[in-house]
Every structure is written in structure tokens, then in C-alpha cells.
Write a structure and sequence with these properties.
The protein is of the alpha/beta class. The chain has two domains: about 15-255, Type I PLP-dependent aspartate aminotransferase-like (Major domain) (Aspartate Aminotransferase, domain 2); about 260-385, Aspartate Aminotransferase, domain 1. The protein contains 14 helices and ten strands. Helix 4 links the parallel strand 2 and strand 3 (about 100). Helix 1 runs antiparallel to helix 9, helix 3 (about 60-70) runs parallel beside helix 4 and helix 10 packs parallel to helix 14 (about 370-385). The chain binds pyridoxal-5'-phosphate.
Length: about 375
């Protein structure tokens, strides 16, 4: 039976606490970047195990600014997986650099050292590691294997709360690590992003670049009226990419609720794994998806297409027709005209194979186990052709 309401693939959970925080900030008369943002940055830094966190208006901006302060520019090559959201590769394009796409492991869906090393050239300036779905890729081994001078930037849009194999949190590696607080993320503030890092002088550069290259941010000017705007003249091109207190006050509450959200996500993932194993043909899922170190932002399923009548897109549409918000993460970037730019696309056999059979099932802290059962029932009916 079709669900009466559409089940979105990701839906944030906001309680009265987030609503009270927004009310408090609205009543304070200061909704720009200020004390809430500073407090959120400190709390987030503690949570991810980094000495500095710089918030920005999106993870896309975080990735762009990270490459910018790493010195990436025209003529440089930036290696990243093709199996990712466009933001990863676009960060390189914004700077006139060339994204060079690498393949991924078929089971973890993340890049490996071998995939990256196969793409390194004398022009390689950076590698962007995507922790797909919330599974942390092994950045320590990668960094050790890369030539000196190649920078690693982590795209941790999915991976707040994830841990590396040694148990340390994503954000604590020493690499510039970029998080997203977009509407459907594990920690949601509608929009927003952050860079976790260890280098204090880079953190200062990022703080300035996110606000027009100004030496003093808007909150300091507001709270210290004797500070004149542009008493130090601009000497670099900056951007308008700052976060706001209206968002940060939500983020601070969402951060304290991460254990609650993680427990719900784990229950749903467990329910999916049990259900998927019992289906005919059985469906594959991302390796380590029940591992305590996985952030479970996405629940990725791999269809056994050779034993099915429908293709992946037909399965997704059939699920949506039953009010199940299944989705696709991702269409491979290396085959898209924007990135080929008239050249023959690289051959990335694993990416091309898995991308044709991958779909994501709804998972969020707003879901119940009964929602997960609806998903499994609908999926079973679709793949068995009922
Ligand atoms: C892997 C990945 N990187 C980057 C981003 C960009 O995040 P934002 O929407 O905060 O810019 C996303 C967004 O979903 C993503 O999935």
C-alpha cells in the first residue's frame, strides 16, 4: 500500500530548543555574524578535534576557500573522485585549476591511495578526499604516499561525527576539512559550512577572505564602535561568504543533539541491512555502513541489475511513485560536458559500474522505524516486479 505522505530522502529534525534559540537571537537585535557564530566555531572545534574552525555560508565556499589558501590556481591539477557532488570539482574550476577525476573502491565508494597515485602528475597541487555517505577515507595513508607539496583537502560534507580507522574524528587530521550544514545534512542550519584546521595563520586568512578581505569582521565593528571600517585599507580580494548568528544558534543546539540523531540513523541503517539481506535478489550496501565510525548521512544501495527487469532510474521513479524519496548520489562528474570540456573523458570503470546501479534510501533523524519498513516494503515490491 502506498504511503499517504511523501518520505523525503533527508529531513532535518528541529525541536523547541532550536526554535527558542532563533527567537532569542531575533530578539537580541543582532542577526549577522557575531557571538553565536564565535561560540559555534569553538564548540565545533572541540567536537571535531581541531584547534580552529572557520564557518562560512556553505561547504561549497569552504572547499573553494580551502583550495584558495592552499595556493591552487590556473594550470594546477586537483584530483578528486568523480563520484561526488559538483561542489567538489567546481571548487577547482572557480580557481582556474583542472579537476582530474579518479576512480573509487566498489565497496566503500571512496577513493584509495592507488586511485589517487594513478592520477598524480607534476601539475598536481591538491587532492580532495570525499568521505562518501559519511564513511571516512584513509587520509593518513594517502598523505604519507603523496609527493611533498601536494595538499589534501577533505570534503566532509557527509561526515560530521564520522571517525577514521584509528578512532579520531573527521576534522582532526590536520588537513583543511570542510563540513556542510545544508538543509538535509546530519547537522542542519538550512545553509552553512565550516573549515576545520590546525594552522592559525591560515584560519586568520580564511576569516578575512570570508568577509571581503576585511581585517575586522562585522561583529567587532558593531561591538567596538570606535573601530572605523577600512581604517586598514583593503589589500586583497575577498568574498562575502560568512555565516550568521541566526544559523549558528541552530547549529549549537543541533551539535548537542548529534548523539540522539546518530542513534536514530543507526537504527534505521540496521533495519535496512536486515531487510535488504532478505530480498531476492539480495541488494548490496556500502561496506562499513553499520560501523560505529560511519556518520550514516547516506544509505547507499547497489542493485543487482543483471538479475532485475528494471534499471536503476526506473527503480527510483517507481519508489517515488510510492511516496518513497529514494535518490541518486551521484551521477559521475567525469562524463559531464562541464568537466570534459570537449576532451575524451577518462575511463573510470568502477565509478561507471557502481553509478549505474546505485541509489540512496531515505535516512534522517526525523524518520521512524515504521518509515524504514515502508521503504523496505516498497523496494521489495519494485524489485520483485509486483
Ligand atoms: C560531497 C558534497 N560536497 C559538497 C557539498 C556542498 O555542500 P553545500 O550545499 O553546503 O555547499 C555537498 C552537498 O550536498 C556534498 O554532498
Amino acid at each position: 500500500m502506498t504511503r499517504p505522505e511523501y518520505l523525503p530522502f533527508g529531513k532535518p529534525h528541529f525541536s523547541d530548543r532550536e526554535i527558542a534559540a532563533v527567537t532569542r537571537v531575533l530578539r537580541s537585535g543582532w542577526v549577522g555574524m557575531g557571538p553565536e557564530t564565535i561560540a559555534f566555531e569553538r564548540e565545533l572545534a572541540d567536537y571535531v578535534g581541531a584547534p580552529h574552525v572557520v564557518t562560512v555560508n556553505s561547504c561549497t565556499s569552504a572547499l573553494f576557500l580551502s583550495l584558495l589558501v592552499s595556493g591552487v590556481g590556473p594550470g594546477d591539477e586537483v584530483i578528486c573522485p568523480s563520484l561526488t557532488w559538483c561542489s567538489t570539482a567546481n571548487a577547482a574550476l572557480y580557481l582556474g585549476a583542472q579537476p582530474v577525476f579518479c576512480d573509487v573502491d566498489p565497496d566503500t565508494l571512496c577513493l584509495t591511495v592507488e586511485h589517487v597515485l594513478a592520477k598524480v602528475t607534476p601539475k598536481t597541487k591538491a587532492v580532495m578526499v570525499v568521505h562518501l555517505g559519511g564513511l571516512a577515507a584513509d587520509v593518513a595513508t594517502l598523505r604519507a604516499a603523496l609527493p611533498k607539496g601536494v595538499v589534501v583537502v577533505e570534503d566532509a560534507a557527509h561526515a560530521l561525527g564520522a571517525r577514521f580507522p584509528d578512532g579520531k574524528p573527521v576534522g582532526s587530521s590536520g588537513n583543511l576539512t570542510c563540513f556542510s550544514f545544508y538543509a538535509n545534512k546530519n547537522l542542519s542550519t538550512g545553509e552553512g559550512g565550516a573549515i576545520a584546521l590546525f594552522d592559525g595563520s591560515l584560519a586568520e586568512q580564511l576569516q578575512s577572505l570570508r568577509q571581503h578581505g576585511l581585517p575586522v569582521d562585522a561583529w567587532k565593528r558593531f561591538s567596538h564602535p570606535q573601530q572605523l571600517l577600512l581604517s586598514n585599507p583593503l589589500d586583497r580580494l575577498g568574498y562575502k561568504m560568512n555565516y550568521t548568528d541566526l544559523e549558528a544558534c541552530i547549529g549549537r543546539i543541533q551539535l548537542t543533539r548529534q548523539p540522539e540523531f546518530a542513534a536514530i540513523r543507526l537504527d534505521i541503517a540496521q533495519r535496512y541491512v536486515n531487510g535488504l539481506k532478505a530480498m531476492s535478489p539480495p541488494l548490496g550496501f556500502q561496506r562499513h555502513c553499520l560501523d560505529p565510525y560511519h556518520a550514516r548521512h547516506l544509505f547507499v544501495v547497489q542493485l543487482a541489475l543483471d538479475r532485475m527487469r528494471l534499471n536503476r532510474d526506473e527503480v527510483v521513479l517507481a519508489l517515488r511513485a510510492q511516496n518513497i524519496g529514494a535518490s541518486i548520489h551521484y551521477a559521475p562528474l567525469h562524463l559531464m560536458p562541464l568537466y570534459c570540456d570537449g576532451r575524451q573523458p577518462a575511463s573510470l570503470p568502477v565509478t561507471e559500474q557502481v553509478a549505474a546501479r546505485m541509489l540512496t534510501l531515505p535516512i534522517s533523524a526525523s524518520m521512524s522505524l515504521s518509515d524504514a519498513d515502508d521503504v523496505l516494503r516498497a523496494l521489495e515490491a519494485v524489485i520483485e516486479g509486483r
